[in-house]
Design brief:
single chain; alpha+beta; 8-stranded antiparallel barrel; 1 helix; 19% helix; disordered N terminus
């Protein structure tokens, strides 16, 4: 009888252990999955060695680019077009105006000068008291070894200031990791047509 009871007790203990194990797995597996998912979500950023981007032997350099930006809003083939007109017709600053552009970039101030790239993006009037523009542009270079590379500019342009400055926030191609600034000076402006030619001097750090 003692042997039977001992055997029964052992069998009962074994069954209880199996049941406990099953319950433990059922309740802990979802929590384990959540913890693992959280860990995975926290691992989307990791450090890189410069060698992985072939930058270990490259030094950052400063380049100066100079060209002329042609904002042509008149004629049959404008490079700058109004896509959102000013909501208030009596606004002295054209507040709310948005223009989409693909403006030529030339070596000299004449439109017939050598074309070195295009400024693609938009500008918008952002002030009700003075003529201020926010400008977002990619300068797509099409000449020389920088052909196919771009410089990205995003900034404020108070157009009636003699000299303006806007930041360079990035680039592509040979201008990867670009940063710097652009200085602007109005070379010519027509109050009749609103066409403009602006001199750009760009100072950019890149690899």
């Amino acid at each position: 009888m003692l042997k039977y009871i001992t055997k029964e007790s052992h069998s009962s203990t074994t069954n209880m252990f199996i049941q406990f194990s099953i319950l433990f797995l059922l309740f802990t597996t979802p929590f384990t999955s959540l913890i693992k998912a959280k860990q995975d979500n926290n691992n989307f950023v990791h450090s890189l060695d410069l060698k992985e981007l072939n930058l270990e032997n490259k030094q950052e350099k400063l380049s100066h680019l100079k060209f002329y930006w042609h904002d042509i809003v008149s004629g049959n083939n404008p490079s700058s077009m109004v896509i959102v007109p000013p909501p208030l017709k009596n606004s002295t600053t054209a507040f709310g105006l948005v223009n989409m552009i693909e403006n030529p970039l030339t070596l000299g101030p004449q439109l017939s000068s050598k074309l070195v790239g295009k400024a693609q993006g938009f500008y918008a009037s952002t002030s009700q008291s003075e003529v201020d523009l926010i400008m977002a542009m990619n300068f797509a270079i099409i000449e020389g070894k920088y052909n196919g590379s771009t410089i990205t500019i995003l900034g404020r342009n108070p157009v009636y200031d003699k000299v303006r400055e806007m930041p360079i926030i990035g680039g592509s191609g040979l201008f990867r990791f670009a940063r710097g600034y652009a200085q602007l000076r109005t070379h010519w402006f027509s109050s009749k047509t609103n066409d403009a030619i602006v001199e750009y001097n760009i100072y950019v750090l890149h690899y």
